[in-house]
Amino acid sequence: MMKEETRSTILITGGAGFIGSNLSEYFLSKGYKVVCLDNFATGHRHNLKDFINNPNYRLIEGDIRNAADCANAVKGVDYVLHQAALGSVPRSINDPVTTNDVNVSGFLNMLVAATDAKVKRFVYAASSSTYGDSVGLPKVEDVIGKPLSPYAITKYVNELYAEIFSKTYGLETIGLRYFNVFGRKQDPKGAYAAVIPKFVMQLMQHESPVINGDGNYSRDFTYIDNVIQMNELAITTTNELAVNTVYNTAFGDRNTLNNLVNYLKEFLSKYDPEIANVAIEYGPNRAGDIPHSLASIDKAKELLAYDPKFSLQQGLEEAVDWYWNNLR
Ligand SMILES: NC(=O)c1ccc[n+]([C@@H]2O[C@H](COP(=O)([O-])OP(=O)(O)OC[C@H]3O[C@@H](n4cnc5c(N)ncnc54)[C@H](O)[C@@H]3O)[C@@H](O)[C@H]2O)c1
């Protein structure tokens, strides 16, 4: 007999994006029904090709800035995994108004829709950027600094709204503060591409990646499968103490940008030995960037029994293999 949970319906906003499409694929494989709401602002149809015809999958093309689209999407839904947003610190510096419209007003629309539809739980993509200028390492959930970018403000406002909706309307929420997520399907193209897919594409084409700064900035790079695990734990936990709060979503280790590029060259040169000889270039530091980032994952371990399986190296080997076979 099917377990109760396997018949549940999950709405994944931003489901055509990197994280959302990976979540969709995973939860469909577990027998859930998945509804996707996306306006394809930064998502892609090719991310959906492996499951678009799955009878348990439904795509709604719509915009979270439109309250009617949100209300339509949450109909009959048990859980929301809210991923839709405009990512990228530089994008938010270039266009803070659009970032705010999507990430704050859109988020609020989704909270209202989820509350009205009485969903069981609203899990959302928060961000490590909320730690802002706090200098202590590792980052623990209760100690944040001042935001360093418009994007960081929007992600912090999400947490504030979620808390108020839990307290005021009884909506169960869990925020997942993602730390530099990477893996299959992450978009390597465009001005706002994330560093790992961008560098992988450049190295595959024997172009020199440009590191902002001296390469000693560090990040808690987090493989997508660890993020999927956190999302699954967030919707399945029955621990009452585990809801209406936020969690660092990371591996719990940090690597410098120089380390990262060295791993990429090492792993890619197994496919093409010439890549070992591609030179690295260095440019100026970028506005809004946090120098160092490392998560404490103790809270997730304790309250959600989180047990991340992929270190940076383990995740990179899989990611590089995927890029080599899919995007070359
Ligand atoms: N990738 C990371 O390292 C990282 C780190 C911290 C937080 N996050 C957050 O995780 C979430 C997913 O990020 P991602 O890396 O998959 O990015 P992504 O750009 O690949 O996915 C975002 C998706 O949201 C959709 N979207 C954007 N505006 C929309 C709108 N107005 N209405 C409906 N859909 C809209 C896009 O089309 C896209 O499919 C975002 O909320 C992001 O802020 C990501």
UniProtKB/TrEMBL annotation:
Residues 10-248 form the NAD-dependent epimerase/dehydratase domain. InterPro entries: Epimerase_deHydtase, NAD(P)-bd_dom_sf. It comes from the Bacteria. Transmembrane segments: none annotated. Belongs to the NAD(P)-dependent epimerase/dehydratase family. This is UDP-N-acetylglucosamine 4-epimerase. It comes from Flavobacterium degerlachei. The lineage of its organism: Bacteria, Pseudomonadati, Bacteroidota, Flavobacteriia, Flavobacteriales.
